[in-house]
Amino acid sequence: MEDQIKKNTSRAYIVIGVMLLISILYASASANYMYLNVYIWFGLAYGMMLQYGRFCFASASRDLFAAGVPRMAVGILIALIFFSFIQAILAATNMSTFHPAPAGIHTVIAGIIFGVGMVLAGGCASGSLYKIGEGNGTSVLSIMGISFGQAIFVTAGGPFLKLVPESWVQSSMTKTWLPRENVTSWFDYYLTGFIFDRGTIQLSHTKLFSGLPGAWKYFIGDALINAIIPACILIVVIYSAYMKKGFLKKRARHNKKNPDNQIPVSGLGVHMTGIKDMILASKRTTMMGVLIGITAGLHIFVMKGMQLKYNVTNFGQLLTQMGHGSDTGIFGNVFDPGYWYITTQEAQFAGWIMEKIGMDMRHNVFFGVVNGLPELWRNPALWMSIGIIFGAMILSLIANEFKFKAPHGELIVWGLLGGTLMGFGSRPGLGCNIGAFFIRSAGGDPGGWLFGLGMVTGAFFGVKFFNWWTERKMAKEMADF
Amino acid sequence: MAEMKFNKTGDDTFELDVCGFVCPHPQLYCKKSLEKMEEGDTLKLVFDNASSGETIIQMCEQAGHEILEQNKEGGKIIYLIEKG
After folding, report:
1. What would the pLDDT profile of A167-183 be if each residue is shown by its tens digit?
2. What is the pTM of this model?
3. Which residues of B touch A400 (CB under 8 A)?
4. Residues of B annotated as part of the active site
5. Closest of A468, A440, A472, A464 to residue A202, by C-alpha
6. Which among A404, A332, A433 is positioned nearest to A118, based on CA atoms?
7. Which residues of A touch B20 (CB under 8 A)?
8. Which of A125, A153, A299, A419 has the fewest other C-beta atoms within 10 Å?
């Protein structure tokens, strides 16, 4: 046991050394790669915090519905509250890289598909990455599902083009700035004939809040109204639905056992104590919620700082300056979210592999126009994902929790199927649990809550399925006694 | 290949082995096993997915089950839970 702990600690130092070496190599290759190094180290920080807090969006709704445990749902809401406040400060000082996205019924549908997928896979997009760092082989399959699911979804043409409504085709044709050879898939028409026509909402930019003096529109509209109040309401709802009864029962039991030391069992103060207890029930999750919220805000601040330092708005401009123009889309951009984001870089990872085996991955809007298809080692956001894996690995090795678990039997099916559904859901939703829900909800975009609503609904059905499945297996096991 | 194993090991003792299983299976099987047991029975839960631990602890706390022991053996995590 002692030997194992020592071995794991040494391995953790090796991983830290490798990450340092990679950073030094990039920094020595070009000063421009400092931009990429920032993604690596923020990824590493996210990975450590996710692993320590067992922070997973799939677990939020799944543990709530399946086991009545609210720790993760509460942790995410706490992170959202802190992140929204920091987002407001950044927007007020013109240091934000946040941009809202078009929302509608498509956002809810995408959320539902994503929600079912994350429950089946056993982890959300970021959760699956940190679990790879813990040695979870099923999560590797889930990330493969997300990656290839997206890459196939965004490039599927042929018979799928028959599903494209005529109105999308007509609208797409009016985009004369778009080379027609790049509009080849079902998803290209979805983007150029549907999504591009839809407006976006950010509360601070609406008539209701834009007239507020100074920077108040960001604090009142984006943070307070769009994030903090809904998050607080949800915390109260979760307490009422899952914790209140047990909390009051515990107090009543105490009074029965201690007639001389009675404690109140009703009133606002009692429920405030109950909510506080619920929030602090899992200190490590709540603490990481606060830290993740602050770090996600700091990440935006640093990325904006890098853009100002290099006088660019996208890493693609730096790649072009360095002679790597083929990495970018036709307008010189690569996927460079400027904040915590997961899915698009995984799609690029799969797209890169598919291109290497001879498939045409450039004549489409997703890779060819909007996000580019950089070499893996020059993909900034992909380094963030790799950072998450290694950050989680470092902490799980130090805590002696790392264990490689090869996927087997049914877990192979759940990992691949769940991951693919997450991939399919994240594209029409324009992001995952992070990009489409967390970042948007905290940034003043109500569309983020629509994706969240869909995600929780999907998770509910996923849990129903798993409840039935485990019940069936338990019955088989219990047949012997 | 790992399989879920739920056994009655004595009059009022049970063992659930979900090694090799990842989220959400360990917590779901643990919950289902406790549901099948009587108050006062004890469950020896063996799992190796660290991420499930935090949820299992809170689930037991809320449901009034007591975690009598928490041990680590190699890569395995072992909880002894008394149903409340």
Report:
1. 999 999 999 999 999 99
2. 0.94
3. 72
4. 23
5. A440
6. A433
7. 405-406, 408, 411
8. A153
